[in-house]
Each structure stands twice: as structure tokens, then as C-alpha cells.
Amino acid sequence: MTDEGPLTPRVTGTVRIVGAGLLGASVGHALRARGADVVLEDASPSQLRLAIDYGAGRAATADDAPTLIVVAVPPDVVADVVERELRAFPDAVVTDVASVKLEPLRELVERGVNLTHYIGSHPLAGRERGGAISARADLFIGRPWVVCRDGKTPASDLALVEALALDLGATPIEMTPEDHDRSVALVSHVPQLVASLLAGQFADAPDGSLRLAGQGVRDTTRIAASAPELWVQILAANAAPVVDILDALSQDLAAVADALRAPEAVGARREVADTIRRGNEGVERLPGKHGQNRRFASLVVMVDDTAGQLGRLFGDLGALAVNVEDFRLEHSPGAPFGLAEIAVAPAVLRDAITGLEERGWKIASTTND
């Protein structure tokens, strides 16, 4: 919420979106919610019609004069589309939302394209399922939006792209293309591969083994449901930094495997313990709620699998003046209840436990970091 009001757009004029899939259509929905004029174009007529039917924007016409163009196409055609848009609309600012920034920029520079009004950007947001049907106006809220400017970028152009991010509820962050690609290799691209490799072990696993799967394995493999066609392009375009991290990871895996081959050998248990401890340290550095590296206490509450129980639980927490910092629900296979893991401030953990138990809730476990 700003002084301008919740629906006042910072970006004025017509915004042209090329690519009406998940990201492009989500940008369209969010901008239209602020009253912006959004026009859409997509190489797929059916995808375009679907995005328009869902309200992400209107069809582009020859009379459109966009002030801002958002290119939301697969990585292997980003350079082609950016070049086309810059030539077709020389007065507009062009940005793209591809997850790799350096390779498209190199291609454009090699072609001699005038990049004065081009600013690469990347919202760190997405869903496992793509397409206009999965688009959401709130997809970018609270998410980082990397903006890759250079020394020749006009201040007004930079302000326009950052205004786009702010209109969508994202947080603009300036980075170089090189720093961006190394960063997303670490926090996005390699995790995708690791999740896929782990989930791949389930393909031929016995059904009996998979029945034991709990929330931990679901958490670590959730992104393995992503589209292979898109990820082949992303990983190929950012191969070098991804390979560097995979090489380091493979060395760590080999060290742990060697330790477990002879767990009674001198130093073997320490190797395993140091691996787990190092993971603890890494998790501690991940930004938490409101961007803080803050740890919360948690309690796990047993919730009957019947209508209204979650609502009652949250109502009781509200009555106890306990703010829910985070929440996760784990279903128990074959059992008529679920386990609600609730993160709270450590200072209120004891009162939360006492208050919930007095209201008839069963606490399965608690932790306090």
C-alpha cells in the first residue's frame, strides 16, 4: 500500500507483453489490476486467446504505441524477440524476464543491436505448471526482481523497469548479468537438477518404499515437477556456472559416500557430522520472513481431516494473540488427520502450547531454535 492508493499504476501508457505464458500473463493480470493498458502477443494463437479470455490483456494492434515492452519468451529466442521489438518500437523501453541474462546480452551485442533502451531483468518467481491458465496477479508479490543495467542505461529507462517491478509487488535488485547468472545457478538452477535427480530415484522404486514418503521428501523434490523442455534451455544457456557448482557438489557427495563406506574408520563420523552442520549453517543464511535471517520456534499440531478444523486452529491462535510466522501441513497417509507445523516467535511458544492444549488441541512435537 502506498500513498498513491493500491491500484494507482506507476507505469503509465501502454505495456506490450510478448509471450502470454505463465510469466507474461501474470504480468498482464497484475498490471490490469492497477488499471494499466496491456496488449498481448504470442507465437501461439491458442495461448494468446486463452490469456486474453482470462483477462491478462487485449490483442495487440498496429496502432499500439507502447512505452514499455516485456519479453516473456523461452530463453532460446529471447535475443531474437528483443531485437525485433527494439527495431519495431524504437521509442519504447524493452525488458525481458528470462532466467538467464548474460547469454542473450552477448548475442545482441554480437549482432550490433542498439541496446540503449534495453534492460534485462528477471523476476525470481514461478510455478511448477506453466501457461496462461496458471497465471496469477499475485505471482510476484514479495519476490526479488533483478534488474541488469549498465553505464549507458538512461535513468528514466531504469526507473520505468523498476516501476514495473514495484507495480507487481516485487522488490527491484540491481545486479550485473554475470553476478545474476552465477547467483541463480546456485539458488535456482542447481536445486532444480538436484531435486530432479533425487526424484528420479523414485521412478523404479518399490511402491512400499514410496508409501513411507513424508513431508521432507516432498519438500526436497517439489520442483522436480517442472517442465523439461524449458529447463533444457535454461541450463544450456547458463551451463558454465551450473557446472562449477555441480563439480563442487559432486566432490562433497563423494566425500560423504567414502565416509559411509567405512563408517567406523577414523574421521568418518566427523565427515558426516560436518556435512550436516554445514547444511545447518547454509540454511541459517537463507532470508526468512521479511528478508530477515531469523529463526522461529515451531509446534506441530494434530488436526482432524474434517471440514473447518484448520479454520478453528487459526481462530484459536488468533484468540491467543499468536502470530503465525509460517505454516506447513503434512497429511498422514492412511490416517484421518494431518500435522500442522506452525512457526511462531520463540517468546510465545510456551503460551501457544498451553493455550492450544486448553482448547483441546493435541501437540505432537515442538522445537525451539
| Structural classification | alpha/beta
Q: Give me the count of strands.
A: 12
Please give the order of strands in the largest beta sheet: 3-2-1-4-5-6-7-8
Residues in helix, %: 40-55%
> What percent strand?
15-25%
CATH superfamily of the largest domain: NAD(P)-binding Rossmann-like Domain
Largest sheet: 8 strands, mixed
CATH architecture of the largest domain: 3-Layer(aba) Sandwich
Give the distance, in angstroms, between the N- and C-terminal Cα atoms: 33 Å
Radius of gyration: 24 Å
User: How many domains would you count in the coordinates?
Assistant: 3
Number of helices: 13
Low-confidence stretches: 1-5
Q: What is the CATH C level class of the largest domain, in words?
A: Alpha Beta
CATH topology of the largest domain: Rossmann fold
Please provide the ordered H/E string of secondary-structure elements. Answer: EHEHEEHEHEEHEHHHHHHEHEEHE
Mean pLDDT: 90
Global outline: globular
List its salient traits:
369 residues; alpha/beta; Rossmann fold; 6-phosphogluconate dehydrogenase C-terminal fold; VC0802-like; eight-stranded mixed beta sheet; four-stranded antiparallel beta sheet
